[in-house]
Design a protein that fits this description.
globular, 6-stranded parallel sheet, single chain
Length: 219
């Protein structure tokens, strides 16, 4: 076990996050924590591990808790901040726990979807719709999950991809509407994707180094 403990009860899940790597944990999840601390956001993050292998088991073993070390220069002075991030509720493996991924996306309080599935993650490849199991590409997975949310009468979400490609939000939206068309899904669902869900292009910027093994004992 990590030896880390929460300072408060976990907030309701408001964010679904595709990707559990260092970048999102040091960037988006840190921002959610700051919003909880200073902006009354009162929401937590449920991660979805998009690939079969990843950090999900370790994250769950630590109850979603981990230590973030921020180092840099502010107002001409070198600063270091060490903080336990408490915004993550847990992580679901999309490949082996698809039903849990569906239930996570269908949590009524969910408002946002973030992702970082590498630069090659946002792509369209023809594949059959496979209800009950994970699709192959990230856009296909997200389309399938939002279909379940649509079927339960839940509102659309705000989608902010962090993959480093040009017009990442617009590209993801096109991939998803193409899958809806390929799978002959109801026109009402296509309108749901286009009208009730919001997509934003983003350019993210934070240098995230790897695990500081030579300093780990200090933390």
């Amino acid at each position: 076990m990590s030896g880390l403990t929460r300072t408060h009860a976990a907030y309701p899940v408001k964010v679904i996050q595709f990707g559990e790597g260092n970048f999102l944990r040091a960037f988006i999840d840190w921002m959610i924590q700051k919003m909880n601390q200073h902006a009354n956001f009162q929401g937590s993050v449920m991660m979805i591990q998009p690939l079969e292998r990843g950090m999900g088991e370790v994250i769950n073993r630590q109850d979603g808790l981990y230590t973030l070390i921020l180092r840099g220069v502010q107002n001409g002075k070198i600063r270091e901040e060490i903080e336990v991030i408490e915004s993550v509720r847990g992580c679901v493996n999309a490949c082996s726990e698809w039903s849990k991924a569906v239930e996570s996306m269908c949590i009524p309080t969910v408002e946002f979807v973030f992702s970082n599935t590498t630069e090659a993650g946002i792509e369209y490849k023809e594949e059959a719709y496979t209800p009950g199991v994970a699709q192959k590409t990230y856009p296909a997975k997200l389309t399938s999950l939002l279909l379940e949310r649509f079927r339960r009468g839940l509102p659309g979400v705000t989608i902010i991809p962090c993959e480093l490609i040009d017009k990442n939000g617009a590209t993801l939206r096109k991939c998803m509407t193409d899958y809806a068309r390929l799978w002959n899904l109801p026109l009402d669902f296509s309108r749901y994707l286009e009208k009730e869900c919001r997509y934003y292009n983003s350019l993210v910027d934070r240098i995230v180094e790897g695990y500081p093994r030579d300093e780990a004992a200090e933390f």
